[in-house]
Amino acid sequence: MAVANEPGRLEDETAYKLILAGMDLFGQYGFKGTTTRMIAEAAGSNIGSIAYYFDNKTGLYLAIARHIARRMREVFGFQGDQSTPDTLDRGQALAQLEIIVRRMVHQFAEAPEARRWLMLVIREQANPTAAFDILYEETFERVHIHLTRLIAVVMDRSPDERRVIIEAHTVMGQIVFFLVARFPLLRRLGLEGEFPPEVVETAEQVVISHLHALAPR
Q1: In terms of CATH, what superfamily is 13-212?
Q2: With helix as H, strand as E and coil as C, how does 145-186 read?
Q3: Which of 86, 105, 213, 214 is the most exposed place for a label (fewest CB within 10 A)?
Q4: Which stretches of the chain drop beneath a pLDDT of 50?
Q5: Are the C-beta atoms of residues 105 and 175 closer than 8 Å to each other?
């Protein structure tokens, strides 16, 4: 089938629709609460299509995890091995961190696609399954290690230090929270709907200021 110019779209239209429908339903009802019939109906397909493309419900669930992991790598710019050159200085590390932060804040604060990932990813954080291993090994770990290495340069410490690893985790948590807790922040700011550009820009500046504060005085 023809492929539209839509981010993350699979070559096969039916498989793509099953991925999206499953992502929404698994996120809303969990693995046990979601049936193959529910997914097929939401995708506008027949129930046998799940077995055809993914073998079974578990196969579809794991395929969704791989799809999310791939899309995260694409939108965050983590496609290959992310290495930190030994010659990187603090200013260069901060510059790279600023690019990453702006890209991630934009995705989590503004892009609708990330909201489709949200509930399934949160469920896997709370109660890990084999899908968590996919998300962790294919995306979370890569991003975390790269951020840790850059932050280690900023802090002039080893990337293996527990403090540095936790600092990287805190930075990621700050950014993700703009998606997880978007509605409380919108209400607190007296806003509805979407974050306006100036709020997203301020969020970027706040997180970046925290990164600069990590440098030794």
Answers
A1: Tetracycline Repressor, domain 2 (1.10.357.10)
A2: HHHHHHHHHHHCCCCCCHHHHHHHHHHHHHHHHHHHCHHHHH
A3: 86
A4: 1-5, 7-9
A5: yes
